[in-house]
Write a structure and sequence with these properties.
This protein has about 270 residues and is mainly beta. The protein contains four helices and 17 strands. The strands form three sheets. Strands 3, 4, 5, 6, 7, 8 and 9 form a seven-stranded mixed beta sheet that branches. The chain has a six-stranded antiparallel β-barrel with strand order 10-13-14-17-16-15. A hairpin with a 5-residue loop joins strand 15 and strand 16.
Length: about 270
């Protein structure tokens, strides 16, 4: 099933049309996918070259935690050791950029393992004073995170949302940027050999040459409460994947919460 929505991002000269694709054996797309996917945005870089000013590679998602707003993505996607200027948009229709603060990540030289492939950037509180920026959709971590989500992971459907590189293009003549937001559904394959990393097998992988660009995208699950109510939960963040194997490796959400706690503490010293 394919759903289409047209949206615009960037400065006055940049326009992008995005498609939301959903590959699944389900006939009805869960409503929570529509809502939560609004917090997922492409990772756009300023190149510094006038003839080719922007590039896109990767995915970010926006969260709310302890009264503050943050951008979550992978450390490797940001090239955190030599961070370029990045552009994050609050909504699918905004022409404005979110005002960003400082990035927190563990230096690669200190901890190269997958479970540290994470970066957190605070969004300036000034964004709430702007009517357009204030419309950013945030994942409420207090509601979305459940530490025991993996206890019944094999019995629930999982979803990964991201912007594959092969579905993104920039017209260098018009500076138009087009990128597709993709939702893939799948099932839990179990823990990875690496600590705090899990495996997700998805359907629809044959539609892609690679999963490059999905890194930094959130992985959601749909759990059933004791009262029989379906509830979306944040299970983690995609850090890499292979379309040939249809497998994603994703970081456990507990690591994201730990990083948010560290970032929050550093910002309030």
């Amino acid at each position: 099933m394919i759903l289409q929505s047209t949206w615009y991002i960037g400065k006055s000269t940049i326009i992008t049309a995005a498609l939301l694709y959903f590959f699944s054996d389900m006939l009805v797309i869960p409503e929570f996918i529509f809502k939560l996917s609004q917090s997922v945005q492409p990772l756009v870089f300023e190149t510094g070259f006038p003839e080719f000013p922007y590039s896109t590679s990767g995915t970010v998602f926006l969260v709310g935690y302890k009264g503050k707003a943050y951008v979550i993505t992978t450390r490797h996607g940001l090239a955190a050791e030599n961070l370029p200027a990045i552009c994050i948009f609050p909504t699918d229709t905004s022409h404005k950029l979110l005002p960003l603060g400082h990035m927190f990540s563990v230096p690669l030289k200190d901890e190269p393992e997958d479970f540290m492939d994470l970066a957190v950037i605070d969004i300036s509180p000034s964004a709430t004073l702007d009517q357009e920026l204030g419309k950013a959709s945030l994942i409420d971590m207090a509601k979305a995170y459940e530490p025991d989500w993996a206890s019944n992971a094999k019995s629930i459907k999982l979803y990964v949302v991201g912007y594959p590189s092969e579905r993104s293009e920039i017209n260098i003549d018009t500076w138009d940027l087009r990128t597709d937001r993709i939702v893939l559904s799948g099932s839990y394959e179990g823990p990875s050999p690496f600590p705090y990393v899990h495996l997700l097998r998805v359907s629809g992988a044959e539609e892609f040459g690679s999963f490059s660009g999905f890194s930094g995208g959130p992985v959601f699950g749909l759990r059933q409460t004791t009262k029989g109510i379906l509830k979306p939960v944040l299970c983690g963040m995609a850090i890499r994947g292979s379309s040939s194997s249809a497998l994603f490796h994703f970081l456990d959400a507990s690591v994201i919460v730990d990083a948010l706690n560290v970032k929050f503490s550093l910002d309030n010293i």
